Amino acid sequence: MIRTKRKINKMRGSRTIGGGCSKKRRGAGHRGGRGMAGGHKHKWSWIVNNDPDHFGKYGFKRPQKSIKKVNPVNLSYLDENLEQLLEKGLATTENDVIVIDITDLGFNKVLGRGKITKPLLIKAPEFSGLAEKKIQKAGGESVTL
Questions:
Q1: Of 10, 19, 32, 121, which has the highest C-beta tally within 10 A?
Q2: Which domains does the chain carry?
Q3: pTM, entire model
Q4: Residue 77: what are its φ and ψ, rounded to 5°?
Q5: Which region, left, alpha or beta, applies to residue 84 given φ > 0 means left and ψ of -120 to 50 means alpha?
């Protein structure tokens, strides 16, 4: 049979309104904590069904500065491996000056560690200040690509 009146109206006057012993429906423990307490624990299935986007990030991100990958080489490496580079054809000789393009070697910056014993013409996208000074001091030239 369909109930014509609400249960709460029917229960008016009873002390516990169908809740059993008067100690049973007491406090926030009966509802598993206040508010969203237990959302990551015992109320997880509720979160999954009713508010699946509750956790995690969403929205826009500020654009990050693009970080340029620097692959450096020292002058000492070039000076020590000069004969091998000439043999492999990675360095050439023009007018008694050895020409090295370090982009062919897989580098993109020349750093000034070490010594140069011969005049070199080094082509690179970037040079450090000390590297340029040492190259010019040895009678060579640094060409920025």
A1: 121
A2: 72-144 (3.100.10.10)
A3: 0.54
A4: -65, -45
A5: alpha
What is the structure's pLDDT at 32?
93
Q: Which residues of the chain have pLDDT under 70?
A: 1
- Tokens 């991100």: give the residue: 61
End-to-end CA distance of the chain: 91
Cβ distance 110 to 72 under 8 Å? yes
Q: What is the DSSP letter of 116?
A: -
Cβ atoms of 126 and 109 within 8 Å: the answer is yes
Element (H, E) at 134: helix 129-137
67 class by beta-carbon count within 10 Å (0-12 exposed, 13-18 middle, 19+ buried): exposed
